[in-house]
Amino acid sequence: MLEQGIEGASVRNIAKEAGLSLGSLRYYFHSQEELMKYARELVSERITQRVDKIFASDKNPNEKILEVLLELLPQTSKLGREPKVRLFFKTLAVQPEKTAAVDQDGVYLAVKNVMSNLLLLNFIKKNLDIGIETERLYALINGLALNSLLNPDELSAQRVEEIILVHLNSICKESVK
Amino acid sequence: MLEQGIEGASVRNIAKEAGLSLGSLRYYFHSQEELMKYARELVSERITQRVDKIFASDKNPNEKILEVLLELLPQTSKLGREPKVRLFFKTLAVQPEKTAAVDQDGVYLAVKNVMSNLLLLNFIKKNLDIGIETERLYALINGLALNSLLNPDELSAQRVEEIILVHLNSICKESVK
DNA sequence: TCTTTATTAACACAGTTGTACTATAAAAAA
DNA sequence: TTTTTTATAGTACAACTGTGTTAATAAAGA
């Protein structure tokens, strides 16, 4: 996927990349859909694990939350390949009859996690609707992921971080900076 | 594209949908890339035209701006198919060596237009970086487009409008409501 | 009327796709 | 040792892909 795009992710190419024959690969995965589903869930799990690890570290909350959000984006993730591949699957799902559920999206879980943490810390400005703010942040993350992948030059890692900081500041109280 | 997804957009299927033979279609478009480029630009142009039309209407600025932004999203556009197809092309571009330039994206032009209008009207809060706010709004629009297409049930048209209104209010002065 | 151009259709070619089936080798169990 | 799983590889098939070529038809111009 990273080298040849979605079209290159054929069963044959994947088998070749894995050093297996076509028959061998199909011994483990009886269909392409099964293989794709496994990969999709694997990527989601890895992202979730990485996010949990950051949350479990002993930094201050502000740093944690920023680091988590940056970890979800292709340009700024230390994980490297996973957020990019996740977006590939996401765009692949933009197909009739192939819609993947949101709940199994590690990024959505991470965003919800970030928001409930901000709420628990009493960082959120008054009169904000948490549901709407969660979906707004989730959309921002997905949009940044898409844009930074399509236009890495204009939307650099530093730029992405600036935008996320601006957004966080806009939903957090003045005192938190 | 709308019926069978990106994979269904083969030269043969398009010819059939257009009521032409394969040879006839290739008389006008010598390659698939040429055909795709034409369609991509056509969609972008239509969106731009629609946006210009709204800006040229005689409503009050607040209404215009909201209407323009809603027009860029699949669920809320009165244009109907174009924003959805545009997103298909956008996700199609998430492929190595196939990156389409941002400048020819009608949606990006529209967002820039919205921001400079807000600035001209003196609606924007003080101390905001216009460049960053433009990219933030552009990412939000693309994210909303992606999410509402993948999850039309949770992210309904009304919900999308609420989110956009919240975002506009967050970057505009208190007096503008 | 004759000739040139525009338009349509049909077929062929080489390549790729997902899937199914079969034979072979290694490992484990009896 | 024999038998049964586990694992790997190879091949075949039908369907599709983009592209190229060639023939036939309609329209327009000289």
Characterization of the model:
Two copies of one chain form a homodimer. Chain A has two domains: 1-30; 38-171, Tetracycline Repressor, domain 2 (Orthogonal Bundle), CATH 1.10.357. Chain A is mostly helical. In chain A, α3 runs antiparallel to α4, α3 (32-56) crosses α5 and α3 packs parallel to α6. The relative contact order of chain A is 0.11. Chain A is elongated, with a radius of gyration of 18 Å. Helices cover 64% and strands 0% of the residues of chain A. Chain A has eight helices and no strands. Chain A starts with 10 loop residues before the first helix and ends in a 6-residue tail after the last helix. The A-B interface holds A 2-7, 87-88, 90-96, 98-100, 102, 129, 132-133, 135-136, 138-144, 146-147, 149-151, 154-155, 159, 162-163, 166-167, 170-171 and B 2-7, 87-88, 90-96, 98-100, 102, 129, 132-133, 135-136, 138-144, 146-147, 149-151, 154-155, 159, 162-163, 166-167, 170-171. Chain A binds a DNA duplex (30 and 30 nucleotides) through α2.
Q: Layout of SSEs?
A:
The structure is a homodimer of 177-residue chains.
Chain A: H1 11-18, H2 22-28, H3 32-56, H4 61-71, H5 82-92, H6 106-120, H7 130-150, H8 157-171
Helix pairs in contact in A: 3-4, 3-5, 3-6, 6-7, 7-8
Chain A binds a DNA duplex (30 and 30 nucleotides) through residues 10-12, 20-24, 26-28, 30-32.
Descriptive terms for the model:
homodimer; 177 residues; mainly alpha; Tetracycline Repressor, domain 2; 2 domains; DNA-binding
